[in-house]
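SAMPLE LOG
Freezer: B-3
Tube label: C17
Construct: single chain, 401 aa
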Amino acid sequence: MKYEDILKRAMKEEENIAGFLSDLVSIKSLSGEEEEVALRIKEEMEKVGFDEVSIDDFGNVKGRIGNGKKKIAFDAHIDVVDSGDLSLWDFEPFKGKVLNDKVIGRGSSDQKAGMASLVYAGKIIKDLGIEGDFTFYGIGSIMEEDSDGLPWIYLIEKENFRPDIVVLTEPTDLGIYRGHRGRMEIEIVVHGRSAHGAFPHLGDNAIYKAADIVKDLEELAPRLKEHDFLGKGTLAVSRIRGHGPSLCAVADYADIYIDRRLTLGESLESAVNEISSLKSVRKYNATVNVPMYEKKSYKGYLLPMKKYYPTWLMDERDPYLLTAKKAYEGLFNKKPRVSKWTFSTNGVTISGMYNIPAFGFGPGIESLAHSPNEYCPREHLPLASAMYAAFTLQEGGITLE
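STRUCTURE (predicted):
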């Protein structure tokens, strides 16, 4: 089997993949509201010939091709963020459209393009009729935008689904990505004592205490760890709230919310300890918490998750990464760009928590995620499908040249 045969077959599917992607974009699927798009994906998987397609009790879509020893999963989350300010868009965000060399709309890059491409990678494998020692899985995962990795906790813990390798199809501009920083959300709570606003000296203002803590957080940020590949850990105060008996009273309560990005060597415990040890936090006896994510899926399944999403990194000498590079070079006759995501993905659970090998390769432009006027270059779609098919066949023992 030749790489060029896979690539030619993929290019013939470009119109079909783009049309399918525009359909997916046209279905608004916020976290917890993915049922319609899940059914549309199931329909397309069945149409192109997947051997088995199902939707689990949580709401994830799973399509299977083959029944070989090597279990290879391709993951795409099928939820999207909302449109935001519509005045910033040049087109309707939830009307997917193929416009010349682009597929436009919310989710076109992040990350329904990956879903469309992996489904048609399955079609390519079926059309080739090659039975290698592999099982190809296409996963349409839900609620990732709300809580990265949550759908894979269900798959691994409740379905006992542990593939040998997971390819994350989040947008990489067709580069190969081998990890990213982790993240977590942290809440600091501080209490005071209320008093009438006319007599503030009789109270103990919790907002003033919070201000001292924020200053210490600002001074902590430059001291966070740094990694030569993943970059530096960061800390951003994203919200401060305070309240008391009325707006004419001294605040008796305040909380500070933090977005914390974790580089290699940082953990939930180390991040919490750094903040708990701050002089102001100790002085005011503030509490430091990691909140829980607790929202039911569209199927009514509740799977609580602490808002901690670990760092992960695949070794640059990992055999799966070497196979991916070989497939890329064979298909496109050039070396791949190997890098990392700036944002977070389901890899936090797959690799960060459960140590299942994972890397990323996806159609779409990473920097357009969550932005107005989002689009995916049309040409990315068949190229990603070809890459997924070639990687699967090579891992399944098929010699490509």
